[in-house]
Design brief:
Layout (H helix, E strand, L loop, with lengths): L2 H5 L8 E6 L1 H4 L8 H16 L3 E6 L2 H9 L8 H24 L5 E6 L1 H5 L1 H16 L3 E6 L6 H5 L3 H11 L3 E6 L20 E3 L4 H6 L9 H14 L3 E6 L5 H6 L6 E4 L4 H12 L2 E7 L1 H10 L8 E6 L6 E5 L5 E6 L4 H7 L7 H5 L13 E3 L1
Parallel strand pairs: 1-2, 1-5, 2-4, 3-4, 5-7, 6-8, 9-11
Antiparallel strand pairs: 7-8, 9-10, 11-12, 12-13
The protein binds adenosine-5'-diphosphate and ligand VHF.
Adenosine-5'-diphosphate (ADP) binds next to helix 2, helix 10 and helix 11.
């Protein structure tokens, strides 16, 4: 069994996907949004949902849609004009998705993010909680770059990186990048007709850089940003597939394990990768000493950490910071992203969840560290 067959085998099918649809696909030759094509992908995503797959959609297309609404024929060079076009176009883009998902009784939600949201701990945690809540509600988040506040990303037209960061954020198992080519070739097929399609390759392979060349036409990110995206996604253990978005029922066929496009394999085991990712992502800001009961439920039952199980709190941390949890012997038990600041933890340590509001005057979350944000050591 090769990697792809293993990955899509009945028992191991990836359950959470990020699907990225690029500018080169979404626009009708760069002119306007290709609504029939969008309806087709929405149908496929609705079918994935019916099979219990959670889907986060990362969709480009705001600039192109805005250009068409404003009657612009050429993509402007000035950043503020691109930003204005994106602001106009984003409305039509989400409306198109909303209407398309509505046909399947599914709700779509608009999420606009920038890279700073991913490196700022509090924003990271908030974005993650919102996305995970939407997924648990069966809603399809439709993510795009917050083009009003970024410059480089809109200039380079790169939503591939954003899609990879979202893959890390929600710990998706698979990133599917739909594009205008059937997959990644060993050279740019536009300039080299001899180029051959790569079926499967490690995302770490150094050859990929040479093969990817430079940017494509409309989106301008080209294959190199997709290769980098696959490497970023691999940090949290996700495989990536770069594949032709116009292939008939492409998402359904991928789910069936059909060998389409290029599978870029994350070499690390997902659990290991996730552990490293969480631990490496953020600096440790504090230490919580847990009582024996908390240690045992964390280890044996995989539950969230509640305030009642915390005996001591050291360090000066904020909501969203990474803390290390130790037992009373000082041995490390887990690491995780904490929902309350050190100051707050000192007021609620040892207290029941019901009494948090009484002690603080408010309650943000029941858990001190949610199990999704906790990695056992
Ligand atoms: N090795 C390669 N394999 C496939 N496509 C390549 C390769 N190198 C460069 N490209 C170019 O990348 C383009 C896709 O990138 P881009 O236009 O940014 O798409 P998107 O808008 O989907 O992100 C292709 O049309 C192709 O010309
Ligand atoms: N965020 C912008 C541009 C993003 C973009 O084109 O990225 P890509 O599809 O990776 O080439 C938009 O929605 O138009």
């Amino acid at each position: 069994m090769n990697q792809r067959e293993q990955f899509f085998s009945a028992t191991a099918k990836p359950r959470r996907w990020v699907v990225k649809i690029g500018s080169s696909l979404l626009t009708d030759n760069g002119r306007t949004l290709d609504v029939p094509a969008i309806n087709g992908w929405v149908t496929q995503m609705a079918q994935l949902r019916q099979q219990g797959i959670e889907v986060v959609l990362v969709s480009s297309g705001a600039v192109a849609a805005g250009m068409s609404q404003l009657g612009w024929k050429e993509r402007p060079d000035r950043i503020h004009e691109l930003q204005a076009a994106a602001a106009v176009g984003q409305m039509g883009l989400v409306q198109t998705y909303q209407q398309a998902f509505h046909r399947y009784q599914l709700h779509a939600a608009q999420i606009l993010l920038d890279h700073d949201d991913m490196s700022n701990r509090t924003r990271y945690l908030n974005a993650r909680s919102t996305l995970k809540t939407l997924l648990s509600l069966g809603v399809i988040p439709v993510v795009n770059e917050n083009d009003t506040v970024v410059t480089d990303e809109i200039r380079f037209g790169d939503n591939d990186t954003l899609a990879a960061l979202v893959t890390n954020l929600v710990e998706a198992e698979l990133l599917v990048i739909l594009t205008d080519q059937p997959g990644m070739y060993n050279d740019d097929p536009r300039s080299n007709p001899e180029a051959t399609l790569i079926n499967e390759i490690s995302s770490q392979s150094p050859e990929l850089d040479r093969m990817a060349g430079d940017g494509g036409r409309l989106g301008r990110g080209g294959m190199i940003t997709k290769v980098r995206a696959a490497r970023l996604a691999a940090r949290s253990g996700a495989h990536s597939i770069i594949v032709g978005g116009k292939l008939d029922n492409v998402l359904g066929r991928l789910l069936e394990g059909e060998s389409l496009g290029t599978l870029m394999v994350a070499d690390q085991q997902p659990q290991q990768a996730r552990k490293h990712w969480l631990a490496g992502q953020l600096q440790m800001r504090g230490t919580l000493t847990l009582d024996a009961g908390a240690v045992s439920v964390l280890r044996d039952k995989g539950t969230s950490l509640l305030a009642v199980g915390v005996r001591e709190c050291h360090g000066d941390f904020h909501r969203g910071d990474m803390v290390v949890c130790i037992d009373t012997n000082g041995d490390e038990v887990a690491r995780g992203l904490v929902n309350y600041s050190a100051e707050e933890v000192r007021l609620i340590q040892g207290a029941s969840t019901e009494s948090i509001r009484e002690r603080l005057g408010y309650k943000d979350q029941d858990e001190l560290i949610h199990r999704d944000n906790l990695v056992l050591v």
